[in-house]
Amino acid sequence: MKDNHPHQTKLTNEELQLIEQLRKRPELLERFRTIMEISDGTEGPIKKADEIEALLIEEMRRLGNATMTSWAGQAEQTLAQQLGQKNPSAGVRKKNADMVVRVWRSESDRAGLAH
Fold it and tell me: Which residues of 32-47 are buried (b: 16+ CB within 10 A; e: fewer)?
C-alpha cells in the first residue's frame, strides 16, 4: 500500500479527532495497535497468508467485542441520564452479573428454580 501523504508532517483535523477518540477508549486503541502490528509483519519469522488472516480475524473479533462493550456502557449511561431527567425519583441500580440460581427438587423429583 503506498503512502498518500509522504511529506505531510502536520496532522489533519480528522487525524487529531481520531487520536482524541482513541485516547478516550484505550481498549480500542490497543486493538488497532495490534492490527497494525500484524499488518506490518515485522516481528518474528515471516508468516503465511493463512496465518496472518487467522490472526487478523481473531483481532477483529476482539475489536468487535471491545467496541460493543464500550457502546453498551455509553448507552447505559445515556439511558440512566435520560431516565433521571424524566423521573428524578427513579433509581438506577447495577445488575448483579454474578447471579446465583439455586436448584431445588420438588416432591415429584422435577428440578425447579428457587424463588
Answer: eebbeebeeeeeeeee
